[in-house]
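Memo to structure team: turn this sequence into structure tokens by end of day. - J.P.
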Amino acid sequence: MTSMRLSLVACLFALLAAAVAVTLRAAPPFTDRLLHDEGFWGDGRAEIAIFDGTEKRYGTARSTEVRHILVREHFTAEARVKADDWRAPGAYPVIKLNQIITVPTGTYRYDQGHSAFWRVADGTLLKFAQTTNDSCGLSYKQGDLAADGRAWRYRALTYWEGMNEVDTRIAPPPGSLFYDELPFRLRLLDWENAAARTAGFTAPLMPGVIGSKADRLAWPAATFTVTKNDGTWRVRVEHSRG
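Reply from structure team:
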């Protein structure tokens, strides 16, 4: 893996900021150029990036390690899991991003994972899954987009009272995004066109689902500002979670 590929991932992941929700103005200016770049995906290898950061837990900033594993693989036709045989009838390519997060907190640590899967044909997020393992217990979440793209089915199994088993369906607004997909999704921006929009662009943004508690799916509006400085692209995201 080249240093350029690493630095691009690090730049986009580190520069997600937050502030306030705004009214939806325009669809995000994404392109499918990277999705279909055989020079990038065609060697069968994965891109791996490791980040050092901090995350506040129990009122203290904790040293955190985040690993990103990005790879193209094939889904089975119906079950939406990794196909044993990519040549099987109906199998189709997806891009997978695994985020692995480790946060020591003194006497124990959090081990969390998030997987997102985009259909290569059009960049649609089809599925996400998330796990949290800590000394209190285990939680698992999964989201699946309906075949017609009109609704998400969200399921969660957690150790929290009142949300031990959740199964809901909800229709997302047009152009909706999930915060946890941004480390890859922002790489699909048409950079020059996005930067040319001096007011940036807005999109409905579901806050992150990485955590042990069940979530309520909702997409308040967020604003994205794209700028270029000394050859480096910078994305600022302002949204409701602050």
